[in-house]
C-alpha cells in the first residue's frame, strides 16, 4: 500500500502551493535547520504575492553567514531576488550592518513588499499559540515602542502588557533529521528552533528530512513532532551538498 505522506521529489511536495499563500519556513539562522531543498523548489514554482513567516531572513544570501565558502548560500532572500513576496513576518530581516544591503531591505525600500518585525520571543510564542489553539496572549515585550502601535494594552499587577494574536499559515516548510513513515520527526541541532512549533501552526506541514525509517526505529523520547502534524515527507539525497 502506497504511503501518501512520502513524496519522491521536492517539486511534487510543493506543487499545490498557490499565489498569495502564507508560508512558514523553519530554522534559526544561516543554514542551521532550514529546509533548503523545499525553499528552492518553492522558488522554482515562480509564485507571486507570498507571505513568508520566518525567524531571520536574507542574511546568508547577502553575507554568506553560516555557509561553506564553496556553496552558494540559500535563505529567504532567494524569494526577494525573484520578487515573489508581498509580505515577510520575521524577527531579523537585515544583515546587522550598514552594508551590504539585503534583497529584503532593497524590496522594502522600493515599496515592493511589506515587512513586519516581531521580537523573537513574541514571534515564536505567536506561532506556538496558534498550534495550541490559543487565539491571543498578553506580553510585556514591546511596551512603549513601535511594536505597541495599534495593539490593545492592559495592566496586570501594575505592569502594562500588549495583546498579541496567534500566528498561523497555509503551509509550513520544515527541516528534521529523521522521520518514520508515519511522519514522526526527530530533530538535531538548530533544527529544533522554530521547526517543531511551525509544524503545529499550519494547515499543511511539509518536512525535509535526511532519512526515512520504519516505525519504532526512532526513540519515542527523541520525537520532537508527532506524525499527526506532518502531512508530507521528502528525503534528501545521501550526499546533498547543501547543509
Describe this structure in words.
Helices cover 21% and strands 28% of the residues. It has a domain at 17-117 and 169-235: Glutaconate Coenzyme A-transferase, CATH 3.40.1080. The chain is of the alpha/beta class. The protein starts with 5 loop residues before the first strand and ends in an 8-residue tail after the last strand. It has 7 helices and 13 strands. Strands 1, 2, 3, 4, 5, 9, 10, 11, 12 and 13 form a 10-stranded mixed beta sheet that branches. The chain has a 3-stranded antiparallel beta sheet with strand order 6-8-7.
Secondary structure tally, helices: 7
Strand content: 25-35%
**CATH homologous superfamily label of the domain at 17-117 and 169-235:** Glutaconate Coenzyme A-transferase
Percent range of helical residues: 10-25%
Order of helices and strands: EHEHEHHEHEHEEEEEHEEE
Q: Report the end-to-end length measured between terminal Cα atoms.
A: 33 Å
Q: Summarize the biggest pleated sheet.
A: 10 strands, mixed
Radius of gyration: 18 Å
Structural class: alpha/beta
The name of the CATH architecture of the domain at 17-117 and 169-235 is: 3-Layer(aba) Sandwich
CATH topology of the domain at 17-117 and 169-235: Glutaconate Coenzyme A-transferase
- Give the CA-based shape: globular
- What is the average per-residue confidence, as pLDDT, rounded to a whole number? 94
Low-pLDDT residue spans = none
Amino acid at each position: 500500500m502506497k504511503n501518501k505522506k512520502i513524496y519522491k521529489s521536492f517539486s511534487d511536495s510543493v506543487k499545490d502551493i498557490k499565489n498569495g499563500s502564507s508560508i512558514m519556513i523553519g530554522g534559526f539562522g544561516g543554514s542551521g535547520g532550514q529546509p533548503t531543498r523545499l525553499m528552492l523548489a518553492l522558488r522554482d514554482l515562480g509564485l507571486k504575492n507570498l507571505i513568508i513567516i520566518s525567524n531571520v531572513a536574507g542574511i546568508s544570501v547577502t553575507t554568506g553567514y553560516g555557509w561553506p565558502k564553496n556553496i552558494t548560500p540559500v535563505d529567504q532572500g532567494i524569494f526577494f531576488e525573484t520578487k515573489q513576496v508581498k509580505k515577510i513576518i520575521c524577527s531579523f530581516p537585515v544583515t546587522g550592518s550598514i552594508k551590504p544591503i539585503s534583497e529584503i531591505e532593497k524590496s522594502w525600500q522600493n515599496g515592493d513588499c511589506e515587512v513586519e518585525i516581531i521580537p523573537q520571543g513574541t514571534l515564536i510564542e505567536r506561532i506556538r499559540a496558534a498550534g495550541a489553539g490559543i487565539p491571543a496572549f498578553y506580553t510585556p515585550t514591546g511596551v512603549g515602542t513601535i511594536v505597541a502601535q495599534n495593539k490593545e494594552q492592559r495592566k496586570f499587577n501594575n505592569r502594562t502588557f500588549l495583546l498579541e494574536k496567534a500566528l498561523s499559515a497555509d503551509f509550513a516548510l520544515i527541516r528534521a533529521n529523521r522521520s518514520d513513515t508515519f511522519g514522526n520527526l526527530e530533530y538535531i541541532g538548530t533544527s529544533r528552533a522554530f521547526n517543531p512549533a511551525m509544524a503545529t501552526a499550519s494547515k499543511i506541514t511539509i518536512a525535509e528530512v535526511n532519512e526515512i525509517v520504519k516505525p519504532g526505529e526512532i526513540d519515542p523520547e527523541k520525537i520532537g513532532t508527532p506524525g499527526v502534524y506532518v502531512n508530507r515527507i521528502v528525503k534528501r539525497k545521501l550526499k546533498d551538498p547543501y547543509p
